[in-house]
Amino acid sequence: MTDTINKFDPDFASPSDFAAFYRALGIQVVPAMPPEVGKAWKRPAVPWRALENALIPDDAFQQWYGATGQFSRRQNLGIITGRASRNIFVIDLDLQKQAGAAFWWENILDVAPNLSELETATQTTGGGGKQMLFAAPNGWTPPTCKTPIGVDIRGQGGFAVLPPSLHESGKEYSWDNGLEPWAVGIADAPEWLCIQIDKLASAYGTTTNGFDVNQDSFLPVTGIQTPTPAQQFSPTGLLIDGREDYMTKIIWARMVDLKRDAPMISKAEMDENRDDVYQMYLSNVKTRLTGVSNEDGLEREGRGRSLFLQKWANAAKQWDNKVAEHANAPKAERPQPARPSEPAFVNYRIDTETGEVLVDPPPTDIFEFLDVKQIKSMKDAEYVVDKIMPENSFGIVVGAPGCGKSFLELGKALAISSGQAQWFGHAIKKHGATIYITSEGLSDMKFRIMAWEQHYGVSADEVPFFLIHNTINFMSNDDTLRLLKTVAYIAKLHGAPTAVFVDTISRVLPGADENLQKDMTIFIAACDAVRQAFKCSVTGVHHTSRNGNLRGSTVFEGAADYILMIERESGDSFGTIFAKKIKTAQDGWEKAFELRSVDVGMFGSNTSLVAIETTTEEKVKPKWPDKSVLESVLRAMQRDFDDRKAWAMSKNARYQAVRNFCKLTGATVEMAQQILSQWQDNGVIEIDCCDKKEKRFGFRVVGSISGEV
Description:
The chain is an alpha+beta fold. Helices cover about 35% and strands about 20% of the residues. It has 20 helices and 27 strands. Strands 19-18-20-21-15-22-23-24-25 form a 9-stranded mixed sheet. Strands 3, 4, 5, 6, 7, 9 and 10 form a 7-stranded mixed sheet that branches. α4 (about 100-110) runs parallel beside α15. The relative contact order is 0.06.
């Protein structure tokens, strides 16, 4: 055996040479199936159940891999893990596919007392994943488990493909440079690593794919354990026992139906079906918890949306193999929760022997309903910024370039992270770390922060505000994974973020078409990945279109929990914040703000702007424009009316008349509104149609201002 190891030359080795080398290391090496696209080929080419406990005899190995052996020229081979291979097991990480795998491995690196203990034979699979081989210590049996976070453990009786096997992608499995088995060997698993693997195995089964930043790891969060109920169904016929099995069945049934109907399906259609099946699941099952909504209770039990998304994603991965196989079989009836036989109506009966009133169960074909007490017990909406930014929400702040939206959002982020009581008159309900993603205005960022500090009298040096200034592509899975890892690392050091800001949306979508729903759905999915993983609010800063509306696909407006429109005329220091949409509170209001210049830097050598709320005191007794200025305004108003460009006052036009008035006079928004209203009341101006073809309406001058000032 030692001679085989010493003579092994990987550069000139044949598959049978690799097999002999692995056997010399004590590995139960077996021939494996060749790769076949769309089929489950990662398995031994021979019956292996009898091979799980001890190395096969030499003569049997020679029949496989001797000079004239049956499989001597077969490229694909693998290891039977466990007792047959001196208790060697495999840690399989889908780092290229699953953020959860990356988080788990980052935690392993963090808790490792000595990273040299992790130097072991490590390979990169043909699909891009990582597999590490360790020898289990005496007295510990490695579990064999497959988790939804992309971490699999191949323990007793498991199987893993080994180099130089070929993958269906056309790439070979290969040992990592410097971590080949002939360079570092196969390390004994340290006790602390075994403990982490046991934690992983015990957590699997009730995972929610969340990330518990309050614990010392990013292991899947375990749902609330509740006792098994005496009945399988609730009084209204909803399933309360066997919910996960039902979830698995309806997901698989829909996936197979989709494959039958449309072998090629778009992501949008897939997402639509996913949401439809999830609503079907919600309408047929019930949480065991009280005092919470059904959906929230299921999530807390580990039987809600997070588990559903895991199962859906796992089923989607098998679209071209197992799903296809099932789709080719005769169509089965869609599974429904098995319900007891029930009468069509609720009936009351008297037991003649005991006198007890008996109630027959209600019918099953009804929707779940809540009484007033249950409705009142539902959880209220909770906010980061009261009545604007709900917790765990997605929002958009939109405005034309240079309107001041970045200064407003930077101030909001600093206010949340520095513990300020309010932002623009709205109480900040939840403080904590904030992360600001931008590659714009970096040279000015320090001055913007200094201006904010100086105006509000706050030092931000120690507050948990963090700037990510790299160029990030939210259309790239690799970049999204890297962002999740970055946020996870910040969360471990400083606590889970309360809010994440993306400034601007267009900068993180290189090459994407903002008008295409499928492209913008990918962006929103990336934001949701951050939002759901860390239970934080995510805000995107976006530009308006030429007509002043939210730019891009309507998917933005549908997905956003809140939308704030920012407006400011070029050269004007004052602007407005308009609440276009707030799902959980009143919208339609607007607030005035000012971009105020502040001297910062050494001896005030630099200046920067800070966005501040325009208070009543700051608007006391503004200077009223003189008569000549007002007359020039009327002349300009009439000239534009005659040119069929009348000044509009509708909200859709965002008070064009007010903006024009302020631009010509330097008056405040409040003063402009007051004067225009007074002119209307006194018959100086009126609303009329300036363009019948385009049906454009606006102000027309019908009188003079004599005696008005």
